[in-house]
Design a protein that fits this description.
The complex is a heterodimer of chains A (227) and B (275).
Chain A (H helix, E strand, L loop, with lengths): L6 H4 L2 E3 L3 E6 L2 E6 L3 E3 L2 E4 L5 E5 L2 E8 H22 L5 H14 L6 E9 L3 E7 L6 E3 L1 E4 L7 H7 L6 H18 L7 E7 L2 E7 L22
Antiparallel strand pairs in A: 1-4, 1-7, 2-3, 2-11, 3-12, 4-5, 6-7, 7-8, 8-9, 9-10, 12-13
Chain B lengths: L17 H12 L7 E3 L3 E5 L3 E6 L3 E3 L2 E4 L5 E5 L2 E8 H22 L5 H14 L6 E9 L2 E7 L5 E3 L2 E4 L3 H11 L6 H18 L7 E7 L3 E8 L45
Antiparallel strand pairs in B: 1-4, 1-7, 2-3, 2-11, 3-12, 4-5, 6-7, 7-8, 8-9, 9-10, 12-13
Helix pairs in contact in B: 2-3, 4-5
Classes of the chains: A alpha+beta (227), B alpha+beta (275).
Chain lengths: 227, 275
């Protein structure tokens, strides 16, 4: 066996991930962790998994980093042309259908779970989940990634319809923090994107600002190596 | 054997994966794949106050043997963009040369200085099309009109945009140096010091990396390529008398001289003219 064969640098770049999106009274909130792994090595501890498709529609990416980046680049390109032709902002339904087409028609080559969410004037806030095979599901809230396993029970109990923006945001941050606590492939910071009629707002919750749960120890700041 | 009536449609382009299946089958039957030249490697990049600093070691390996003690891993892409390459040496060399040519044509077409995101998109679409078979892991850095940029590109075609990045088998050693010493708005001297320390960490702690440190500092004004900036592995022994083998050192056992002129005959036509 070659001494230089390193599983962690040769493994494909994947986002273990926890991603989610919820509808609230007036819009949607998308949330994600920030860990990208190659095997067991954390290749990027501050990645941004919520990418913009149009001004009013964003996409949460999980699974293979390469596959999800390529799909989002293609959809952004198609939606750009569609917006010019249409003369209006694209609807969330159109964006999700495009993502679904790419995922479904190329299902044998792609390994990526996606969540499309945004706001348009016809439906208000909407969330669409597009898991591995290319199904398109409109849902009031959606989760994805390896960390989502730990959230099904929690969200069944904690999610309510017609939440305010503050409630929804607190729910998203709490959920991602819970998943980060239990899932090895999720970690880093929590990023949220709030989309409503007014526009888009990006928020960032550093690791030490996240709520702590059962048996978690508060992080202690490490001194920077003085030279 | 009957001839097939179906016309052979040439492949439209892209990689045909048929031979990959044959190779896996042969491997399972016991055949050994040839060892290709890999750059075991430690490559790094960081963004400092005025631009980007890229660093690389200089060891190239073929299996367990060091085949090149002083190879160049920092490749030219454009006057304002450079790229460090880890993985299979042939893949990194060829993919960077290819994108460099594409960028020249793009500059002619647009009439502008190349942007780092252009190089990034060209690299990632090529690597994704080949589904990871082109084993090139790159650290791409440069300064353009929109400012300094640093990206990590992985063999399957995914990219990360970061303030500091490391790749290759020595990436963990180098990352430990960056994580403890990096801060925003570093000066050029501080940046060079941290980059060399990171590469040295890879050189001394990773078997796949070694020899010397190369640096490349890119700012808005210019690009400085410091080849062999540090040489922490000098040849430890050299013979005091020098290496000189005078005639007589090697015994000559027999001599045979063959005149080639006898074997060449002009049969017809003119003998080749000598100008």
């Amino acid at each position: 066996m070659e001494p230089m064969a390193c599983q962690w640098t040769d493994a494909p770049h994947s986002m273990g991930t926890t991603i989610m999106a919820v509808e609230y009274n007036g819009g949607v909130i998308l949330g994600a962790d920030s860990r990208t792994t190659t095997g067991v090595y954390v290749a990027n501890r501050a990645s941004d998994k919520i990418t913009e498709l149009t001004d009013n529609v964003y996409l949460c990416r999980s699974g293979s980093a390469a596959d999800s980046q390529v799909v989002s680049d293609y959809v952004r390109y198609f939606l750009n042309q569609h917006t010019i032709l249409l003369g209006r902002l694209a609807t969330v339904k159109t964006a999700s259908t495009l993502v679904k087409e790419l995922s479904y028609q190329n299902k044998s080559f792609l390994e990526t779970g996606l969540i499309v969410a945004g706001w348009d004037k016809y439906e208000g806030g909407s969330v669409y989940g597009i898991p591995l095979g290319g199904t398109l599901l409109r849902l009031p809230f959606a989760t994805g990634g390896s960390g989502s396993s730990y959230l099904y029970g929690f969200l069944d109990q904690a999610w309510k319809s017609n939440m305010t923006q503050e409630e929804a945001e607190a729910l998203v941050v709490k959920s991602i923090s819970l998943a980060i606590a239990r899932d090895g492939a999720s970690g880093g910071v929590v990023r949220t994107v709030t989309i409503n009629e007014e526009g888009v707002q990006r928020k960032f919750y550093a690791g030490d600002k996240l709520p702590l749960f059962h048996e978690e120890i508060a992080p202690r700041p490490t001194p920077i190596h003085a030279n | 054997m009957t001839k097939s009536n179906v016309m052979e449609v040439p492949p439209k382009g892209g990689f045909t994966f048929d031979l990959c299946r044959r190779n896996t089958m042969l491997q399972q039957q016991g055949a050994k794949l040839p060892k290709f030249r890999k750059t075991g490697t430690t490559i790094v990049g960081l963004i400092f106050k005025d631009g980007v600093i890229l660093g690389a070691d200089t060891r190239a390996t073929e299996g367990e043997i060091v085949c090149d003690k002083n190879c160049e891993k920092i490749h030219y892409l454009a006057p304002n963009i450079s790229c460090c390459g880890a993985g299979t040496a042939a893949d990194t060399e060829n993919v960077t040369d290819m994108v460099s040519s594409q960028l020249v044509l793009h500059r002619y077409a647009t009439g502008r200085e190349s942007r780092v995101v252009t190089a990034l998109t060209m690299l990632k679409s090529h690597l994704f099309r080949y589904q990871g078979q082109v084993s090139a892991a790159l650290v791409l850095g440069g300064v353009d009109v929109t400012g300094p940029h640093l990206h990590a590109v992985y063999p399957h075609g995914s990219t990360d945009t970061l303030p500091f990045a490391t790749m290759g088998s020595g990436s963990l050693a180098a990352m430990s140096v960056f994580e403890s010493r990096y801060k925003e708005n570093l000066t050029k001297e501080e940046g060079m010091e941290i980059v060399s320390a990171a590469i040295c960490a890879g050189i001394f702690n990773d078997l796949g990396s070694g020899s010397n440190v190369d640096l490349c500092i890119i700012t808005k004004a210019r690009k400085e390529y410091l080849r062999n900036y540090q040489q922490p592995n000098p040849r430890s022994y050299s013979r005091s008398k020098g290496y000189d083998f005078k005639i007589g050192h090697t015994a000559v056992l027999s001599t045979k001289i063959t005149q080639l002129r006898q074997h060449v005959q002009v049969l017809e036509g003119d003998a080749m003219e000598e100008e």
